[in-house]
UniProtKB/TrEMBL annotation, chains A, B:
Keywords: Manganese, Metal-binding, NAD, Oxidoreductase. It comes from Paenalcaligenes hermetiae. This is D-malate dehydrogenase (decarboxylating). It catalyses: (R)-malate + NAD(+) = pyruvate + CO2 + NADH. PROSITE patterns: IDH_IMDH (PS00470). Gene3D superfamilies: Isopropylmalate Dehydrogenase. It is an enzyme of class 1 (oxidoreductase). It comes from the Bacteria. Belongs to the isocitrate and isopropylmalate dehydrogenases family.
């Protein structure tokens, strides 16, 4: 079987603490299923690296990384040392854009043992995935200021949607929907307020839908969609959204299932021309960093998504993915648990427990 | 006492059904407290009007309305007859912008008798207000398409933030916060993704904060803020947000308190140079229109906000506002209730009951 090259970049804060647990679980599961993973560790994208080099990545980061199959990413951001806009645009957002990781997959699933903030929900009730556009749209530094510093100051920010960018995420989302039993796609829009960009998104959606007659689809204005996440999350199966709307929905969704702290994500370049990147949705969490109390589940779950993606449907990888997810569910249901879930276990203990369940 | 001129514009769908109930309650309460309200009814901003005139408003709408103190507005939108972008940009969004109703006040309050989708919350736990910028920001039709209809198509949409526009909503929000016991302001941002507009918003926030040393303030990225609405809504007192973020938060907030169906809003021109507009957050709801089953609470609550605004703090108006709110709470707690809250009462019965409780 192919050896997969994984770039390991723990980053900062709790990223550094949860990464070893993902590697521990990967070690166990890859041995069990004969999956060959080869790691190389990078100290980039961290406050330390920034302090030494004045930037988040070396100049030749693209060439150094492009041969990898995946980047396993901890967390970026340490505002005490690096302003957020530098750390994010200097690493994470750069990877997404330059490695053309145009799909950000963010599962939203109510897990056993995780207290749900919504009344009367049980595991199984909420189980959908947000497919977020990850390279364009509202996330830009295009625009600027005029009459700066005066009463007349005007600030413009431009969103940019391309035919290529919109179509490929819609296509991917329809395909994800098609592969699931419910075959249902919900698209986020705000065509009544954002009068140029979102009508375009909607137009392309309708065009694309024609090619997937077996997928039921609907669209929701983002305002009412967030309300529906809370009032009736059962209705969602696959949600497709622009960069900004997807960002919002993929924090709100996990919150509706109890915590953003265990949510994983996969930043995919589906064509595999460039490495894909797997990272927890949570950040570096300076407030709890260094205490070995962070919950490693999001990181381990992200690693599971990596294994699944690398396998392209091959049985050993699917089995490994299933093992990892079952171990995560088992651990969430029975403990040990970290403090965020009301337990007293350390990051290490949870990682060990999940590895042991495989 | 001054006679207040009210333009009554029921619009379409359930707007037409809930409006008489607001007028019924206003009639009772204004008599009781000696408040002089004078109504003029307009058939504008409706599908009927559009069918007759090909537009939502007459050409001289501005002149005809500008002498009014307030517009009591039902609901706009009847997609079977008028495309949404025409009905909205042709009336509601026009009023907001041209009458410079730059503040959109949207209370979020868990009311007695309304089942809360969040576990373990009781009335009193959730009670905050969203102060939404209402004239600029992300809501524009600036931008356009290039290479239209081809694979190279690019669509640009511009957001526009002005010093004037940002400062005045922040100032208003700080003042609202200052007037409340908790004196706490939370601002929505996304400076890490929207790299031009939101850093500007944050800068102005910090500037403004310096003038309100007694107000505690914080800022939240919009993604995690939506999560906090669900996980810990108790922490919010006053929330200030841009047009788009405010739109999202003021649907999500009411959802967290049980239903968007009873949420009111006040589109204010605080200087009173132009009429302010009071409307339910809900729309025209074609699916339940014409059946006399719509919940009139949002409309009546909006009318209560109108009375309070008109009174500028004078005692009879405050007393009238309090009476209206108590009657609403009483009715929600004890019934009668419309179908959306699990009851069987008609729109009329609920309106009558609320009027009778005053
Ligand atoms: C850190 C930030 C730029 C990022 C985003 O908004 O994409 C994060 O919120 C995420 O969702 O991965
Ligand atoms: C109908 C729509 C344009 C409007 C808005 O987005 O402002 C509505 O959602 C609201 O919140 O009043």
């Amino acid at each position: 079987m192919k050896t997969h090259k994984i770039a390991v970049m723990a980053g900062d804060g709790i990223g550094v603490e949860v990464m070893p647990e993902a590697l521990r679980v990967l070690e166990t599961v890859s041995k069990k299923h004969g999956i060959a993973l080869e790691y190389e560790t990078f100290d980039w994208s961290s406050a330390d690296y920034y302090q030494k080099h004045g930037q988040m990545l070396p100049d030749d980061w693209f060439e150094q990384l492009r041969g990898f199959d995946a980047i396993l990413f901890g967390a970026v951001g340490w505002p005490a040392v690096v302003p957020d806009h530098i750390s994010l645009w200097g690493s994470l957002l750069k990877f997404r854009r330059e490695f053309d990781q145009y799909i950000n997959m963010r599962p939203v699933r109510l897990m056993p043992g995780v207290p749900c903030p919504l009344a009367n929900k049980k595991p199984g009730d909420i189980d959908f995935v947000v497919v977020r556009e990850n390279t364009e749209g509202e996330y830009t530094n295009l625009g600027g200021r005029i009459f700066e510093g005066t009463e007349r100051e005007v600030v413009i920010q431009e969103s940019v949607f391309t035919r290529t960018g919109v179509d490929r995420v819609l296509k991917y989302a329809f395909e994800v929907a098609q592969s699931r039993p419910a075959k249902h796609l919900s698209s986020a829009t705000k065509s009544n307020g954002l009068a140029i960009s979102m009508p375009y998104w909607d137009e392309r959606l309708e065009q694309m839908a024609a090619q997937y007659p077996d997928v039921r689809w609907d669209k929701h204005h983002i305002d009412i969609m967030t309300a529906r996440f809370v009032l009736n999350p059962e209705q969602f199966d696959v949600v497709v959204a622009s960069n900004l709307f997807g960002d919002i929905l993929s924090d709100l969704g996990p919150a509706c299932t109890g915590t953003v702290g265990i949510a994983p994500s996969a930043n995919l370049n589906p064509e595999r021309r460039f490495p894909s990147l797997f990272e927890p949705v949570h950040g570096s969490a300076p407030d709890i960093a260094g205490k070995n109390i962070a919950n490693p589940v999001a990181m381990i779950w992200s690693a599971a998504m990596m294994v699944e993606f690398l396998g392209q449907g091959q049985a050993p990888y699917q089995a490994a993915y299933t093992d990892m997810m079952q171990a995560i569910e088992h651990c969430l249901a029975q403990g040990p648990r970290t403090a965020d879930l009301g337990g007293k276990a350390t990051t290490t203990e949870v990682g060990q427990a999940i590895a042991a369940m495989i």
